[in-house]
Amino acid sequence: MITVQKLLSWYDRHGRDLPWRKTRNPYHILVSEIMLQQTQVSRVLIFYSSWLKQFPDWKHLAQATNTEIIHAWSGLGYNKRGLMLRDIAREIVKKGTPQTRETWMTLKGIGPYTASALTAFSLHERVMPIDTNIRRVLGRFFFGLLFPDPKKDKQIQKKIKAWLPTHGRFYDVPQALFDLASSVCTKIPNCVSCPLRKECHAAQKFLSGNVRVPKNMIQKAKETHYRNKPYPDRIYRGRMLKCVRLHDPNGVDMKEIGLHIDPSFDRHLDTEWLKNMLERMIKNGLLKKKNNVITLG
Ligand code: SF4
What we know:
Elements: H1 2-14, H2 26-36, H3 41-54, H4 58-62, H5 66-73, H6 80-95, H7 101-104, H8 112-122, H9 132-143, H10 153-163, H11 173-183, H12 203-207, H13 215-218, H14 233-246, E1 252-253, H15 254-261, H16 267-283, E2 287-290, E3 293-296
Helix pairs in contact: 1-11, 2-3, 2-6, 2-8, 9-11, 14-15
This protein binds iron/sulfur cluster.
The site of iron/sulfur cluster has 14 residues, from helix 9 and helix 12.
Domain HhH-GPD: 35-183
GO molecular function, one term: iron-sulfur cluster binding
Family: Belongs to the Nth/MutY family.
């Protein structure tokens, strides 16, 4: 319990001042959680308030068209997330805001981590959302694992049940752990500055200075690359959406879009690749095709 108090006083001094930490509104919290998936905090900060201005609640978001969402999400990347958020809002307008972790999880697009985050931050329940960062800190702290993997999550959850206090600011503990993970307990941690150092089962191993990051952790995330293209497909899909967005509402002719996304586009070699990417984006509701003209979904 003492370690929790130490962690919280560290958080009071060093924690980040983020707007979604000042609210218990589940809509605001979900917007931040979905935006934070695969996007850095500094970037999310730019979009979070303008999104809430344009779509202040579930009802306004539920009424938004695909085109409005694509414009508002533009620049955040992984555009499917914006449409998914709107679809969740539509469900909530129909059925009401979930009041338990289990009900949150019945909504398409909400997994165990997001459901736990919503329950912890909006309902202030004793639940710990375990993501890579929290897993890293607690796997080290409880078990002395240097680079813990998700297989350990069940055991971490068991330990948390006894470790989290039943009163006071237990709901701030996950946020404190996020900040500790991003500034102190990083891949190669700075244990000397850590408030959990004395009780942490991994501190001595790191302080010995002999720990190396395993090679498989340095590898970049696997992404699909086509032929000799210098970038992963994700980049070309982003360019395609940007190009169509800039030509909204007229759209872009199918014959021209290849050269818009890649100056070395080869009609013989690359058309199938382009069509496959396009089909995927049409399926996700981001784009539409009519008479060989591509428009926003
Ligand atoms: S003491 Fe080191 S390894 Fe343990 S939680 Fe703190 S920074 Fe991480």
